[in-house]
Write a structure and sequence with these properties.
- One of its GO terms (molecular function) is penicillin binding.
- One of its GO terms (cellular component) is plasma membrane.
- The protein is α+β, with helices and mostly antiparallel strands.
- Among the domains are: 32 residues; 275 residues, 3-Layer(aba) Sandwich (Beta-lactamase).
- It contains 17 helices and 21 strands.
- Strands 3-2-1-6-16-17 form a 6-stranded mixed beta sheet. A 5-stranded antiparallel beta sheet has the order 8-7-21-20-19, sandwiched between helices. It has a two-stranded antiparallel sheet with strand order 4-5.
- α8 packs antiparallel against α17 and α12 packs across α14.
- The longest helix is centred in the first third of the chain and has 28 residues.
Amino acid sequence: MNKQLKFISRTVFGMFLILFFSVTMIQFVSADELRSNELNARTVMNGYKIERGSILVDGEPIAYSTPSGDEYRFVRQYSDGALYAPITGYFSHSQGMTGIESSMNRDLSGTGDAQFFTRIMQTLTGVEPQGSSVELTIDAAAQQAAATAMEGFEGAVVAIDPSTGRIRALYSTPSFDPNTLSSNSDAEIITNYRQLEEDPSQPLQNRATGGDLYHPGSVYKLVTAAAAIESGAATPSTEFDNPTQLSLPQSSAVMHNSTRQACGTGAKATLQQALVFSCNIPIAEMAMGMDRNEVSEMANAFGFGQDITIPNPVTPSEAPAPMDDAQVALSSIGQLDVRVTPLQMAMVSAGIANDGEVMTPQLVDRVITPDLRVEKEYAPETFSQPISQETADALTGMMEHGVSDPGAYAANAAIPGVRVAGKTGTAENGTDDAGNERPYTLWFTGFAPADDPEIAVAVVIADGGGEAYGFEGGSYELPTAVGKQVMEAVLSE
């Protein structure tokens, strides 16, 4: 009998310890994560009890709360909603919250740790509680330039200040109007959300930082070249065999350059020629002569495969280690299993522009209290140093030639009186169920001025530019023109 009582006592005590541990985890360890979860309806509903702080761009509110005169007390409103939706997300009492509304929710709702004493003072003085405002790093002119240049396309633009990591533009299209999800009518919100969710153009998908990701194509050659130069395997003037086609080892696949011809007229082609004219074969030959993991490790150093928040979450880009030489060749030109976000490609260009140092990308500049005190300020932080200044200088020089040389593919990115560095990319996407080749994904990435960089950009356009271009637009005409307009918007200020 005593043995049974001891067993029961120990079991109950063990269950008590498990329960105590679980409650502790929920109340203390996981509390912030649970509060910020976009599916937590209580958090959203509590947010309507106070006047939520504004989201600001250049000091002007792009998201703000106004009295509603109903049980919710306030309603969330968005000026230029579709322009900033990929950044702000939405705040909805039936659909939760996304974007900055979610990632900065505790500050916007006035429940952050830094606002503890502010809440006490408001209680003592009888002042109505109010959330803090969040000032973004976005440049309104650059954001508008991105939206205007991308009109009619599907894709995204990201622009970063190379020396600080401050994101100056982040735009995804097609976009949506978050006002349609922020009314105080649940029925209206649900109807609008269902329409957005069923829209085949997927406007709720943020193509700048997530979604299905894209093959980078030839813009990934910057990573391959960085790995080669940094390891000592090549310099811009290193020459490679220049055939019209390359049979891949241990494979029946044959690689061609985009022109189906050799890279230039000589028997050899340099690394610089291969980048300027986006030739596949010399790049693949170079990669196969290196350690098999060299390029994927360089990609990881630039941020591929890593969890990044800006503070909105970013889907990690992918650059798996190749299994054989054929995979080395294909992945070196941004095909096979390599997939990226435009944010990640902007980080690559920004790192090259910043002497090889990649800064942590950041969307938030500071948090401001209702009485206009700066509550939090976000200082620049180093993310990684994947390459040396010497390697960055070599890459910059080749990217400049990619814009300025006669016949260079990125020539459309040239800005009069400004030295521009750039690289185009055209990514293949395989065939559909009928065996027809899917439209290409078009890329441009670069920075300006090349000698004193102020802005780095990445542009992606899906489906070869869409129906208006017969799904066959070129990477040297469409995304380069977009990148130029965004860079000009920043440089003209």
